[in-house]
């Protein structure tokens, strides 16, 4: 897989204009004109850059993997360094919006270098983009116009700090808008939780638990065609529990049924549930239920 260590090399590969600064590039087309169009398709690639991109397609559509996306209303993407990128079937299209790319070293030694790691939207995949309302779009555009103005000016000792401050503001607004999107997509959240539980049930019923052990959250997210971070954030917003907590609760519910079998020891129940080490199962059970598996079995027997 091809990897690009510099911003200039990455933009050259995309067949886009060279950046005004070796660490950051800004392309905007929010009024007249259109954004420069990158090469039509690409095999999987990676790079050392962050990308914030807002796209409104006037003509044409873009395909990521097996899904085609309609960006008539506009969508905001956040891509972190070393995420795998691939696109195909991209007909010649005209697009409005903006694209900001900056090398991870642009943040070195700054407060934003620590802050940016807290924003979950940099872990989301393309089909989990932020869809902006017209009002939100205007707010983001105003910030980007300020960044672009500073980028296009003759840069001085203040330029970097000003751009970083504006980027930080953009991320804070995006975080607010994602919160809104999670609330508005409650029906989708419920559906994702149902699918999550259904996938777990299928995994248990298939016998893979004994063969392959407890599925990872990464495996669960992949089976649901969403990113690991998005799955956890969505379930957290809807239920107050992360995907890991939901997986653990499912295991505990299964354990309760199995513990009712007097012919199975606690260790056998643990192994049957995919735990490699029975003591870990016992600790998890007590943490979630307040009593040990043995105490649970005894308590149930008394009722």
From TrEMBL:
Protein name according to UniProt: DNA-binding domain-containing protein, AraC-type
Domain HTH araC/xylS-type: 198-299
GO molecular function per UniProt: DNA-binding transcription factor activity; sequence-specific DNA binding
PANTHER family hit by this protein: ARAC-FAMILY TRANSCRIPTIONAL REGULATOR (PTHR43280), TRANSCRIPTIONAL REGULATORY PROTEIN (PTHR43280:SF32)
Keywords: DNA-binding, Transcription, Transcription regulation
Annotated InterPro entries: Homeodomain-like_sf, HTH_AraC, Tscrpt_reg_AraC-type_HTH
Keyword Transcription in annotation: yes
SMART domains: HTH_ARAC (SM00342)
């Amino acid at each position: 897989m091809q990897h690009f260590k510099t911003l200039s090399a990455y933009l050259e590969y995309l067949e886009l204009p060279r950046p005004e600064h070796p660490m950051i590039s800004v392309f905007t087309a929010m009024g007249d004109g259109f954004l420069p169009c990158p090469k039509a398709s690409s095999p999987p690639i990676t790079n050392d850059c962050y990308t914030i991109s807002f796209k409104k397609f006037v003509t044409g559509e873009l395909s990521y993997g097996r899904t085609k996306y309609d960006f008539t209303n506009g969508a905001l993407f956040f891509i972190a360094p070393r995420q795998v990128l691939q696109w195909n079937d991209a007909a010649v299209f005209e697009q409005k919006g903006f694209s900001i790319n900056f090398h991870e070293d642009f943040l070195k030694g700054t407060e934003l270098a620590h802050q940016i790691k807290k924003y979950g939207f940099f872990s989301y995949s393309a089909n989990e983009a932020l869809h902006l309302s017209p009002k939100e779009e205007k707010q983001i555009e105003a910030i980007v116009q300020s960044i672009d103005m500073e980028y296009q000016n003759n840069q001085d000792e203040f330029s970097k700090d000003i751009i970083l401050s504006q980027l930080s503001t953009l991320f804070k607004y995006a975080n607010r808008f994602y919160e809104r999107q999670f609330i508005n997509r409650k029906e989708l959240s419920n559906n994702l939780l149902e699918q999550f539980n259904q996938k777990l049930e299928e995994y248990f019923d298939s016998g893979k638990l004994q063969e392959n052990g407890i599925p990872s959250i990464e495996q669960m997210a992949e089976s649901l065609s969403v990113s690991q971070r998005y799955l956890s954030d969505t379930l957290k917003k809807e239920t107050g529990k992360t995907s890991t907590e939901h997986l653990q609760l499912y295991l505990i519910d299964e354990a309760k049924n199995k513990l009712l079998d007097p012919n199975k020891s606690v260790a056998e129940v643990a192994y049957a549930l995919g735990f490699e080490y029975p003591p870990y199962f016992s600790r998890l059970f007590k943490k979630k239920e307040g009593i040990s598996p043995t105490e649970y079995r005894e308590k149930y027997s008394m009722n």
